[in-house]
Specification:
Strand order of the largest sheet: 5-4-3-8-9
CATH topology of the largest domain: Nucleotidyltransferase, domain 5
Largest sheet: 5 strands, mixed
CATH architecture of the largest domain: 2-Layer Sandwich
Strand content: 15-25%
CATH class of the largest domain: Alpha Beta
Oligomer: single chain
Distance between the termini: 15 Å
Helix content: 25-40%
Number of strands: 9
Length: 183
Amino acid sequence: MVRHGVVVTTPHYITRGGPRTRVLPELVAAWSGFDVEREVAALLGVPALVLNDAEVHGCGVVAGTGLEVVLTLGTGLGNAVFDGGRLAPHLELSQAPVRWGLTYDEYIGEHERLRLGDAHWSRRVRRVVEALAPVLVWDRLYLGGGNARRVSAATVERLGDDVVVVPNSAGIVGGVRAWSISR
């Protein structure tokens, strides 16, 4: 979770072996409050903009009208919220409990997709979308990230007209558009 280029918390970069491995206290301390944006700008000698993957992805697809939410499906669940085309403050939905004591990351992340298969996993994605709809009350929801293409056609059809699956390549476009959209 990054706000204004500074790490607020990071559930993913505090282990040596990646998700589902032991958290290392020294990495928690090193990342906490780290001003990534300032450090990158200083190292490169040019202005830098640091956003999470869902925020960059969203910059590539938002239309700029109403409340637009981006959920990225990959290792875990990424998210971003845009209001009138502007990036809203970040909500770290991935770490919220969803079911059986699992977080959203654990419930619909890559590990579960591989374990369940695409069809059953797609039903979980639908449950997540349906659960978040009354909380976020979006005008448009974009499903992106590396696994969005794996959501079954039947699930996509049941999600409704306000939900759009977008290609993972939107992150490339978003990297350019982020400079005019963000904050």
